[in-house]
Specification:
With about 900 residues, this protein is of the alpha+beta class. About 50% of the residues lie in helices and about 15% in strands. The protein has 34 helices and 26 strands.
Length: about 900
Amino acid sequence: MVLNSNEQKLQEQIPFHTLSEEEVLKRLETRKDGLSSGEAAKLLEKYGKNVLQEAKTKSLLGKFIEQFKNVMIFILLVAAVLSGVLGEWTDTIIILLVVVLNAVLGVIQENKAEQALDALKSMSSPHAKVRRGGQVSEIKSEDLVPGDIVLLEAGNVVPADIRLLEAASLKTEEAALTGESLPSEKKVGVLEGSDIVIGDRTNMAYMSSNVTYGRAVGVVTATGMQTEVGRIAGFISEEDTDVTPLQKKLDELGKYFTFIILGVCVVIFAVGIMEGRELLDMLLTSISLAVAAIPEGLPAIVTIILALGVQRMAKRKAIIRKLPAVETLGSTEIICSDKTGTLTLNKMTVEKVHVNGTTKEAAEGLEGTPGGELLLQAMTLCNDSSIDEGKSPKESGGNEGAKDPHTKSGKAIIGDPTETALVDYALSIGTDKRDLEKKFPRKNELPFDSDRKLMTTIHEVENGRYRVLTKGAPDVLLSKCSHIYVDGEIVPFKEEHSRQIMESNTKLANDALRVLAFAFRDEPQLPTNISPDTTEKELVFIGLVGMIDPPREEVRDAVAICRKAGIRPVMITGDHRDTAAAIAKRLGIIEDETGVLTGSELDKISEEEFAEKVTDYSVYARVSPEHKVRIVKAWRKKGKIVAMTGDGVNDAPALKSSDIGVGMGITGTDVAKGVSDMVLADDNFTTIVVAVEEGRKVYSNIRKAIQFLLSANLGEVLTLFIATMIGWRILEPIHILWINLVTDTLPALALGLEKAGDDLMSKKPRKASSSIFAGGVGIGIIYQGILEAALTLFVYQWAHTHYNEGIAVTMAFATLGLLQISHAFNVRSNTKSLFQIGWFSNRYMLWASLISTLMLVLVIIIPGLNDWFGVSHLSGLQWGIVVAAALAIIVIVEFVKLFVRLSGKGKNWD
């Protein structure tokens, strides 16, 4: 029987890192020899397979039906039915195709999101080496159970959550889980504090992390969904019901239109019946009004504008996985960014060196500096990393020479990040590790040990002498030194030397640099008794080296642009406080450390208090996945639209919790990319700013399309409503449907391709609560709709007094259609004149207006076709009046825009 939820909860709450080895084994009812086969079988039945459970997914039909739970889609279906009632089967088919296409696209996007959990599962190790009944054997990782004794070595993927019982120089790479840029050093022993974050639990190894160095023996404490990575998987599989601001606005818009349509239709029908008009006649009139009012092209237009935005973003390295994310980007107010690999290069780099009593920038080099050559020897020879010899493009995955663009030297260097940084720096200033190794071959070594914090190698040098090279923690190494290398001479190590070196070490550490010290000792012959006590003593101090994972050069400018655009960057990282603060200061995210909060400090703050204080902090250090989610949710409770960037498994819950998750395309795990709304193809923070700009442009263009469509529909409704109230039979349902078909779609799409204004990124982001009708859109819809109706009714009335009914209806039909085409040019800006933005600056609008005009005119001038539409040929004078009325709306709106500019009321519009 599989573990029930109460047992699962109890198991999760046991802080194994705080228990002694005996207590751990007792709690798990196991022993160092391992479980017997029978015990393991019973536990497997109890706890279940060591796998991540599949997310609960809807059936394909269920997903398809879900897409229709939308008011605007319902209105579209009503329009299709009404068109069918009127015998307009072509329009019915077109509308239904739009609805079905929209639903299919929605299902495709939803299916893509479900790939995240599969990616997470693929990170698990397929096999594990275990000790059962005193015998070591290899089993499938899925058959592991709590209490199993597991053996780990370099190259293994940790198959479950494990409490370490034995560890020899063990290091595990946990960047995807904790966000730390360096491998975590592990050791056995009890830790104090049940609230220690994952990155500080040095006696634990976690599922899906990689063993990079050493070996260990541990006992499995959690499997499957009870592991740390399993908890993340559980969060990913939770159903996400959030909708974007635009979706909310369109839903509201649909509801408003439903009530307005029903209200107007009922009024018209009632008035007509009271006036004694025929029931069928009034029913057809009411249907005409409903068709005129329904913006049937709106959902399709919005979807297409979003899709066009996606294409533009893809060209600029921002890959959109979910269409609504384009619009959400435009309203982003907070960008919560992971540090490692997102704001930084995820590549340790030598930044400063202290040699010959002086600290200098690494970029200055060491040539001519006393002790510089010795320091380079120690950096490269007391080092286990290796330089890639230069694989062929085929062998190196297509990268010529296996070059790494993130290293100073451009070479691919294999090994521990700290050691590769040292070799890379030496290479960048002309010292090649391979040449030194040939000149000074290694004869013996004392590997690095986390307890003594030192590493020593012994090399043969010229004239049959030997050189001992040692590196390690400054405080430890200084205690082993009896001399110091100064101005080319070896002099006794004095107290003032120690004080000066430690002061330099403190300054480097305060800059969040990881500091290593280096020393040497020459021997006349090869030491025979190699041990820390006999070898690592009476050393000559050479210098210090300070390293850091540096920020990306372009990110500081991107942060500045964010601030100018009213967007607040927030750093969330699993790294240490000092490192996070130093990087944040360099990037301009914070000015001082008052804006930094650690995960342990966050744990002591209640939800209510944090909701108030969240605005005080811009940097969060040493955090766990739960903290990231908490931070994102706190900002969202403030009503902010939050984007979260990340690349690791640990970022996945926060990516999903945010309004828009931004995954890293190069360094990002498949899990992070799978739950993201957008993926950065170049892992460049600057690309987020580009995407925000595109998002703002897309939203602006969607508002223009909405203003155009709704003002056109309002013009149609008012025209029909007023005409019906005064007894005119001005337009038939087929006329309205044709106008909507030929004048709505193409001009609205052309508006979706309008260029962004120069000041787009100088404005603050719009609030999620702001109305879609704000910024002049609502006012524009109303007065422009009234203008269209007034001009159409004026032309009809004039034609009715000078010509017959057929000519009057035709002129009203042509006027209303051409008015809408002309009006599309007005909507390109609510404040700027067409002469400012340029009549020909949007070539798509020119083509759209030309094609729409031809389609409208052809049904009037082609014999037979005009009979089908119930319209007549027009004379030159009649066409002149129609065109003059259509152009009049541009003139009138231009005067309104001039008034708005002069009054200063429209400075925040568009």
